[in-house]
Specification:
Layout lengths: L14 H5 L15 E7 L5 E7 L1 H5 L3 E6 L22 E2 L5 E7 L2 H10 L1 E6 L6 H5 L13 E9 L2 H6 L3 E9 L11 E6 L5 E5 L4 H12 L6 E5 L15 H10 L5 E4 L2 H7 L6 E9 L5 E13 L5 H10 L10 E9 L13 H19 L3 H8 L18 H11 L2 H6 L7 E14 L9 E8 L5 E4 L9 H13 L6 E3 L18 H28 L6 E4 L2 E4 L2 E7 H9 L7 E8 L16 E14 L5 E11 L6 H21 L4 E2 L2 E2 L18 E6 L21 H13 L10 H10 L14
Parallel strand pairs: 1-12, 10-11, 14-15, 18-19, 25-28
Antiparallel strand pairs: 1-5, 2-4, 2-6, 3-5, 7-15, 8-13, 9-10, 9-12, 13-14, 16-24, 17-18, 17-23, 20-21, 21-22, 24-25, 26-27
Helix pairs in contact: 6-7, 9-10, 10-11, 10-18, 14-15, 17-18
Length: 768
């Protein structure tokens, strides 16, 4: 294994083509005779479409197609609940809903055609607040649903008895808002009908097969007639799994024409068409005994999906139960409800519901620690679930580095010393806070399968090609698979090519979600590489007249142990595998399905093959005159099982931390009457380089027994603790606890005013 990059900093295998501008994103794809599409969106949150006049648009020179909802298939579509057409028919249910589309020979003509469409609306009353939507007799977004998109009930143990024996009980309500995915590349798609009647779609996606199933269903086509190819994808963060409508509309338009169609969202289109994260209100009540052990937990969640459900039920499900598994806890009661409104649809986002509860739970733990006179790190340590234990939901913890993460963070940020320092009394005051989190690596909830299939080919030059359906959207999936393949075959990582996912070439795969690629596809990759290596050794044994046990695969050769010059190269062996009687190209195909189970109706079952943990500590500075909060230092410790590529883990963790800082302090979608008022990067304030500190990260290697080479998912967990860590640090600095995100200067100043100014300093230090 002299050439292995496992455990070493390794640049992404896609880096060179991205840096030299040769990577082909969907918006870069050009096809002969390609046409350009634009979409007309509703300006109202709720309205009846009285009339659509497309005559002027159709008459423009260069316009090839104008369609409305009436032209689309009558079959309803949706990720789970089938509840909308490809384009709106009769009723629009949110601002930005797609009403009509045009296709023309140029983007300029398409824009002009869009302006020429006349739509007469009858504006209708809209319900824009989840509480109002759930009230008795409220206007229904979808008839007969009472605006209840999904409800959950979880009951374990005896919650009342647990609270009765608690030494401290704390109850509070927290508010988490929506966050736009903020990827650099807006949604883009090119689609074309072939002469054989097959539809090919090149798109920015996290799952080619989930996308294919959606297009086939909505267009009423056999799935074998639809081919989806992932273009280079400039960020996903959950927003490009399967919910967006850009690619679906493009596929429909192409199905109506004999020329390729390209649709690229501008940024406003993307803000209106993307699925921002799910806003939630969390009422949390926790009881602890005198030693700080959690004895009861009660949760009530009100979440909002907007006009259509999409993946939001799964997001709320994660909020409701995932964090239960981080602690040893027996008594849990949860009630959760997901409300329809006439706001834009919400959906998947990095962390997938974990960050909403992560904010509430970790703020709660901070309060309880203070009431106990205990360090928050110690409170987390006492309650952390351990390796080999089974959680209240039946999750089997094969590995956990939580305790090591807590200690790593403690030392890295100088936690104990900073906790002892006196509280600042000037205008600018510093404080520190911490939070902990867990996340799944894989998740058996999309049918009774959480597997991955890898096809590995050894070419006649001895190099390897990997075919997989697991997508790389910038997180480094291709790189980690190439590293594993190269490690197992003992070849340079540069000698491995991971092909872009293509439903015609790759076996079925779920795609990049739930931090599943490293552990699920990685295990399939290990199996495939080892089977290929065994084939090479068997062939060499025949040629070298040696027993397979006496041979080894090293540095791209199979050689006799102890006799390094007695060898055959992989190239020679691959050619021999073809050019012989009954020969064929050397390839293997293997599948690895996670040893997990689907949850039962009580939400009990070991759904993930492994679990990642993370702890973050931050130091903030609060300006008590302006209310501005600035993060001056942060350290995140990430338990990733085994760090296959530390450079990639650091990069992805840093990105997660910045997204968490943005969600906590800066980013807020501003709506007035259901209309988005800041749908561009000038007005939607995302954190810039100058507004974040150097992101310091650490890695804990817990070496998961199920993971490939001990690895499990990394970096997605790191987005979960940030909001609470910042909120706890703000409290530490000025004695003000903000329970509604984002933590804006206005909220800080209002809270300070409400308590009559900052808390008085303690002579012996704030935590004496």
């Amino acid at each position: 294994m002299s050439q292995s990059t496992i455990g070493r900093d390794t640049p992404q295998v896609t880096a060179r083509e991205k840096l030299n501008g040769r990577a082909l994103y969907a918006g870069d794809i050009k096809q002969p005779g390609m046409l350009h599409a634009r979409v007309l969106r509703s300006p109202y949150p709720h309205a009846r479409i009285v009339r659509i006049d497309t005559a002027a648009a159709r008459a423009l020179p260069g316009v090839r197609l104008v369609v409305t909802g009436a032209d689309t298939p009558a079959k309803l579509t949706g990720v789970h609940r089938k509840e909308h057409r490809i384009l709106a028919v009769d009723i629009v249910r949110h601002v930005g809903e797609e009403v009509a589309a045009v296709v023309a020979t140029s983007e300029d003509i398409a824009r002009d055609a869009l302006d020429a469409i006349e739509v007469e609306y009858e504006e209708l009353p809209a319900v824009l607040d989840p509480d109002a939507a759930l009230a008795e007799g409220a206007l229904e977004v979808h008839a007969g649903m009472k605006n209840r998109a999904y409800e959950m009930r979880i009951d374990y143990g005896d919650v009342e008895a647990g609270f009765a024996r608690a030494a401290h009980v704390y109850e509070a309500t927290y508010h988490a808002h929506s966050q736009y995915p903020g990827y650099m590349e807006p949604m883009a798609t090119v689609a074309a009908m072939g002469g054989d009647g097959r539809l090919t779609v090149w798109t920015s996606t996290q799952s080619v097969f989930l996308a294919r199933a959606r297009y086939a269903e909505a267009l009423e086509m056999p799935v074998s007639k639809v081919r989806v190819i992932q273009a280079t994808t400039g960020g996903g963060f959950g927003g490009k799994i399967v919910e967006e409508c850009n690619s679906l509309i493009t596929a429909f338009l192409a199905s109506r024409l004999d020329r390729p169609v390209r649709l690229v969202n501008n940024r406003l289109d993307d803000f209106q068409g993307a699925r921002a994260s799910v806003p939630e209100r969390v009422r949390l009540k926790i009881g602890v005994d005198a030693d700080g052990i959690i004895v009861a937990k009660e949760v009530e969640i009100t979440a909002e999906c907007g006009a259509y459900q999409g993946l939001t039920a799964h997001v709320m499900y994660v909020t409701a139960m995932r964090s239960d598994n981080m602690h040893r806890i027996a008594n849990v009661r949860t009630r959760a409800i997901l409300a329809y409104t006439h706001n834009p649809p919400r959906g998947a986002f990095r962390g997938f519901g974990g960050q909403q509860m992560g904010f509430a739970l970790n703020c709660h733990m901070d309060v309880l620690a203070e009431r106990l006179g205990m360090d928050p790190i110690e409170l987390h340590r006492r309650n952390a679930i351990g390796q080999g234990e089974v959680s209240v939901h039946g999750w089997k913890i094969g590995s956990t580095g939580m305790l090591q993460c807590l200690e790593q963070v403690r030392g890295a940020i100088d936690w104990d010393e900073k906790r002892r320092r006196p509280r600042d009394t000037g205008l600018r005051r510093r404080g520190i806070g911490m939070a902990a989190a867990m996340h799944v690596s894989g998740n058996r909830t999309i049918g009774n399968w959480d597997g991955s299939t890898v096809t590995l080919k050894i070419s006649e030059d001895g190099r390897a090609t990997v075919l997989t359906a697991e997508c790389d959207m910038g997180q480094g999936a291709y790189t980690v698979l190439a590293q594993i393949c190269a490690h197992e075959l003992s070849i340079p990582v540069e000698h491995v090519t991971v092909a872009a996912p293509d439903t015609d070439a790759a076996a079925f795969g779920i795609g990049s979600l739930a931090s599943r690629v490293t552990i699920v596809a990685g295990n399939a990759m290990v199996r495939a590489a080892r089977e290929a290596r065994d084939k090479l050794i068997a062939l060499a044994a025949e040629k070298l007249e040696a027993a397979p046990a006496d041979l080894e695969a090293v540095d791209g050769c199979v050689r006799l142990k102890g006799v390094p010059d007695h060898k055959l190269t992989y190239a020679e062996l691959a050619r021999m595998h073809i050019f012989r009687k009954g020969g064929e190209g050397l390839q293997v195909r293997t599948t690895w399905d996670a040893p997990t189970e689907q949850p039962d109706p009580r939400y009990f079952g070991n759904v993930a093959p492994a679990h990642s943990f993370a702890v973050q500590a931050v130091e903030v500075e609060v300006d008590t005159e302006t209310g501005q909060v600035r993060v001056v230092d942060t350290f995140v410790s990430d338990d990733c099982g085994r760090a296959l590529n530390p450079m990639a883990i650091h990069g992805q963790t840093a990105g997660a931390v910045v997204q968490a800082i943005g969600w906590t302090l800066y980013e807020e979608l501003q709506y007035e009457g259901g209309r988005l008022m800041n749908g561009n990067f000038a007005d939607y304030t995302m954190p810039l380089a100058r507004s974040v500190p150097d992101i310091r990260t650490g890695i804990v290697e817990s070496n998961d027994p199920t993971g490939p080479l001990g690895a499990k998912g990394a970096s997605e967990t790191a987005i979960v603790p940030g909001a609470a860590a910042i909120a706890n640090a703000v409290y530490d600095a000025i004695g003000v606890r903000i329970t509604a995100l984002p933590i804006t200067p206005q909220k800080v100043l209002a809270a300070l005013a409400a308590q009559g100014g900052a808390a008085a300093p303690k002579a012996q230090g704030r935590h004496a």
